[in-house]
Amino acid sequence: MVLKGIGASKGISMAPVLLLREEEIDISENIVEDIASELNRFHSALEKSKEQLEKIKVLAQQKMGKDKAEIFQAHLLVLSDPKLVNSVENGIKSEKKNAEVILDRTIKSFVQIFESMDNEYMKERAADIKDVGGRLLKNLLGIEMVNISQLDEEVIIVAHDLAPSDTAQMDKEKVLGFVTDIGGRTSHTAIMARSLEIPAVVGLGTVTETISNSDYVIINGETGEVLVNPTEDVKNQYKEEQRKYLEYRAKLMELKDKNTATKDGKHVELGANIGTPNDLKGVLNNGAEGIGLYRTEFLYMDRTSLPTEEEQFEAYKTVLEGMEGKPVVIRTLDIGGDKEIPYLNLPKEMNPFLGYRALRICLDKTDIFKTQLRALLRASVYGNLKIMYPMVSGITEVRQANAIMDEVRKDLEAEGIVYSKDFEVGIMIEIPTAALTSDILAKEVDFFSIGTNDLIQYSTAVDRMNQNIAHLYTPYHPGVLRMIKMVIENGHKEGIWTGMCGEAAGELPLIPLLLGLGLDEFSMSATSILPARELISTLTKEKAQEIVEKAMSLATAEEVEEYLRSVIA
Known about the structure:
Layout lengths: L1 E3 L1 E4 L2 E9 L14 H30 L1 H14 L2 H14 L3 H17 L4 H22 L13 E5 L4 H6 L5 E6 L7 H9 L3 E3 L4 H4 L5 E5 L4 E4 L3 H21 L16 E6 L5 H6 L5 E5 L13 H14 L4 E5 L27 H6 L1 H14 L4 E6 L5 H20 L9 E6 L2 H5 L1 H4 L5 E4 L1 H9 L17 H16 L3 E4 L10 H7 L3 E4 L4 H9 L3 H11 L5 H12 L1
Parallel strand pairs: 3-4, 4-5, 5-6, 9-10, 9-16, 10-11, 11-12, 12-13, 13-14, 14-15, 15-16
Antiparallel strand pairs: 1-8, 2-6, 3-7, 7-8
Helix pairs in contact: 1-2, 1-5, 2-5, 3-4, 4-5, 11-13, 13-14, 19-21
GO molecular function, one term: phosphoenolpyruvate-protein phosphotransferase activity
Family: Belongs to the PEP-utilizing enzyme family.
Keywords: Coiled coil, Cytoplasm, Kinase, Magnesium, Metal-binding, Phosphotransferase system, Pyruvate, Sugar transport, Transferase, Transport
């Protein structure tokens, strides 16, 4: 059987399945005579759950950073909540029933109360209580939980989705791949898989109902194929494909410390996209010449309160120091749309991608924005910082953001806090009006970075998460390409550099075209850097311009894609 999903992280893996699926727990009701003993059972389970969560928290700090570990502190607080503990204790004492019956009823009652609240942040806490309550209940019943930090054999994890606690515990030596029911190329699971350099296929719909623990699968993280219980011949065929892929990757490593240049010497910069300081290792291992996009929203997500100025400063400083003077483009807070932060209690909207998000929130909630800018400026002395505003639709927003930046500078100077005066300030071009007024915008910023994920979505009027119209979402649309060409030309006319940090920058067939259009910097997932460097080294400026001339004369996205794929075949 062959299943087809979305290839989220390249590579081929094969192994037995480890299915992570929540099963119903069967609870029997008993009358207890020895109340003290029953209370001891409950408290033993409570302590065991706390110990487990403390270990997960430490692992999360080591593998994913302090900010990601914050969520487990919230889970620990649930276990120490007197309302929860007292409610179970009192139920055992008054009703003389076994602890699991009382606990199960208490957890369900708490979850129901939180789920019925209007406040989105409080609703989100219901999920925490459900998770923690499930752990506590299993410990009380002596049910063994799958410990993916201590696996005995290599596996491919199949799950509905992967929670932060799953990825935090994961043993990369044993987990060879992910397969999930939900998710797209920009989902948390996909980003984590690419960060860990583990092949992954996401968005398979109901794979957790199709596959069982007794199955063996092969996954191809490039094509999105999942082969279930393949024959020995097919296994051997994929082993050969895997061998060739690993050989190809090893060969690419020879380019790790090379300059990125065409055959005739034109240099372009290849940067990496990151979400947390923990991604630095992959960036350096893959020979990135900078960081073209540091998505700071991950500092704000999966936690219960805003990150402090000090927490942010430490994260930015770590990345800037780690890159040792190479350029680091840090994007200011970009939340809203599909990136929710429950504790901010932002209003639900009819069209969230067209709504209150990113720079629009920062210009409204200036206290949040100023805290981030202070942390960024303080960190600027530790490296080559470039600050980027997302979701700019016109010049007014740039001027407003710069005015707030000026206030922050003055505050720091008044407080005698040192910052570098050499940092650059640029914008993401991801809204059609920004592209169409890029000649005006270029006069007031230091650089452009084209965010193709949103630019394609907004310019083609295609919701990139809508599977019914997914075929219409394409970077090869002639209208999108003309907009990109305009932005690069307008940037160059004003003497500023123009990069690209959307998924299209790492799309191999597009690279010759973007090179011919004069793109100065390409930023992509770390694992895409070496294939891109190899391809660029085979091109010349003249050849890239020929490709532009031909591609820009074609009428449809299909024609453009077919032509560009033939160029690199």
